[in-house]
Amino acid sequence: MHSNNRFLVLGAGGLLGKTVVEALLANKAEVIATDINTDTLLAHFGLDNDQLSIEHLDVNNEVEVVSFFQNLEPIDGVVNCSYPRNKDYGKKLFDVSLASFNDNISLHLGAAFLIMQQSAALFLRQNAPLSIVNVSSIYGVVAPKFEIYDDTNMTMPVEYAAIKSAIVHLNKYFASYIHDSRFRVNSISPGGLFDAQPDAFLDKYKQLTMGAGMLNATDMTGSILFLLSEQSKYITGQNLIIDDGFSL
């Protein structure tokens, strides 16, 4: 599907990011994989793949991001899997300070804005089709189902809901502002991704799906590849929910 295409994947060292890179490489694409921790990427992918370039990028460093995009050769798409957050991220509602809330909004949503802004500027310079795929969440679309967190130390962070819902709307903002069919901004909204969560949580989550329960990162890649491809060339400003019915 993506032979002779060139894509940028940000946050490529994470659970979803590595899987997206693997899927693009398997589809014969050239990939620029960036992360703040390149050691993780080098350990996973090595240095022997001619299709893959690994580069350091701190998505919260405006100077670094702007310089990176200004020096980027033409690409066909951007997948933002980055997930910056501070050490207090994930506390329960009444334990979240205003300073921590604001910091996490700035880190995650601010980085998403910066990446979309610089991707839009790149599109205008290269004057060629560009598809951006962001990662939102079912909890950017529906209210949390807090009962599934009973009997665990987990919660659904309030910062996460605010950030992921805002990303859905930023898709529309940027698509509308640039106003060009060749420039597309969409997102996927995964349901829960399996990452060794407690059994009590996994069992309750599964009961609210059509039977699959928590999904794997590989379950997301088909939709991402589709949104990056010419097969979706008139889909823009949209959010694709992939959750086996959890949000119904």
TrEMBL record:
Checking Pfam families in the record gives: adh_short_C2 (PF13561)
**The organism's taxonomic lineage, starting at the top:** Bacteria, Pseudomonadati, Pseudomonadota, Gammaproteobacteria, Alteromonadales
**InterPro entries membership:** NAD(P)-bd_dom_sf (IPR036291), SDR_fam (IPR002347)
What does the sequence similarity comment in the record state about its family? Belongs to the short-chain dehydrogenases/reductases (SDR) family.
Entry keyword set: Oxidoreductase
Official protein name in the record? SDR family oxidoreductase
Superkingdom classification of source = Bacteria
